[in-house]
Every structure is written in structure tokens, then in C-alpha cells.
């Protein structure tokens, strides 16, 4: 079984919408959590997204972001209605949050506080003029 993910980040401001796409890395802890879900569902679900300022490469042994910024943003989570093994997570960062940070990383975080997966993206200079919309898709496949 293989876990993959992709992230769509919309940066919404006065100048319109800028969109970035990036593939993510499901770390070892994330794969262990997914395996446990097959035995006892919803024991340690993904509950939010955290952001950070590091663009260091993701390693399989990571359990958290390299340089976290701000708190945890709650996500909505739903299975894809047309594709088995696909789950979508979505969160919003309002204009009032994370201002003054240069955001470069984000991670899906579980109820126990562990990193499930991490993505690095082009720098976003977060100001009160910008809000973010994050759409994160995780796919479990047999290939």
C-alpha cells in the first residue's frame, strides 16, 4: 500500500488569487497511524494543519514541523465521494492570523500532536491583506 498526497494553497488578497500546488511527504509516523486506522479506526485522526517557516527537506523520521509558526488550524475532513481511498482536508487562515511570518512549510497533525505528513511550498509573506485556503488530499492506493 502507498500513501501519497498533494496540497493546493490559495493565497487570496487584494490583487486576486495566487495558487500553488505541491506534493507532500507522508512521514513514517503518518504511515504507522494509517496502519493502526485499519485495525481501530479513529484512534488518532488528523485534526488540523500547522504552518512553519522552514524550507528544509522532509525526512521520513520527522514527528513535527522544523520551525512551527502560530497554532493549530482545525480542518474539515471528508472522504472523496467518487474515489475509494481518498480523503480531503481543508482549512482557512484568516487575515488576522500568522501575520509577519514567511510561511514555507505545513503539516497535517493528528490528535496526539504527531506530524502525519508535511509539505514545502514557495514562500508566502503572510500579512493582514492575505487569507489562505488550504486543500490537502491524501490517497491510499495499492500501487
Textual characterization of the structure:
The chain has 143 residues and is mostly beta strands. 8% of the residues lie in helices and 55% in strands. The protein has 1 helix and 10 strands. The protein has one helix spanning 28-39; strands at residues 2-13, 16-23, 25-26, 46-52, 68-74, 76-79, 86-93, 102-110, 115-125, 131-141.
Key attributes of the depicted protein:
single chain; 143 residues; mainly beta; 5-stranded antiparallel beta sheet; 1 helix
Could you provide a short overview of the structure?
This protein is mostly beta strands and 143 residues long. The protein contains 1 helix and 10 strands; from the N terminus they run E-E-E-H-E-E-E-E-E-E-E.
Topology, please?
Blueprint (H helix, E strand, L loop, with lengths): L1 E12 L2 E8 L1 E2 L1 H12 L6 E7 L15 E7 L1 E4 L6 E8 L8 E9 L4 E11 L5 E11 L2
Antiparallel strand pairs: 1-2, 1-10, 3-9, 4-5, 4-8, 6-7, 7-10, 8-9
Count the DSSP helices: 1
Secondary structure category: mainly beta
Tally of domains: 1
Strand residues, percent? over 45%
Q: Tell me the major beta sheet.
A: 5 strands, antiparallel
The percent of residues in helical segments reads under 10%
Radius of gyration: 15 Å
Number of strands: 10
Average pLDDT, rounded to a whole number, is 90
SSE succession = EEEHEEEEEEE
Poorly predicted spans: none
Amino acid at each position: 500500500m502507498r500513501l501519497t498526497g498533494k496540497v493546493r494553497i490559495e493565497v487570496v488578497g487584494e490583487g486576486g488569487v495566487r495558487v500553488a500546488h505541491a506534493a507532500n511527504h507522508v512521514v513514517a509516523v503518518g504511515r504507522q497511524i494509517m496502519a493502526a486506522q485499519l485495525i481501530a479506526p479513529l484512534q488518532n485522526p488528523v485534526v488540523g494543519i500547522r504552518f512553519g517557516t522552514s524550507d528544509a527537506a522532509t525526512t521520513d523520521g520527522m514527528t513535527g514541523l522544523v520551525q512551527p509558526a502560530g497554532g493549530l488550524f482545525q480542518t474539515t475532513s471528508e472522504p472523496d465521494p467518487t474515489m475509494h481511498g481518498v480523503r480531503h482536508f481543508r482549512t482557512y487562515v484568516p487575515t488576522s492570523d500568522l501575520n509577519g511570518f514567511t510561511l514555507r512549510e505545513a503539516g497535517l497533525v493528528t490528535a496526539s500532536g504527531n506530524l502525519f505528513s508535511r509539505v514545502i511550498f514557495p514562500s508566502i509573506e503572510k500579512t493582514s491583506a492575505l487569507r489562505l485556503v488550504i486543500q490537502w488530499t491524501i490517497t491510499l492506493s495499492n500501487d
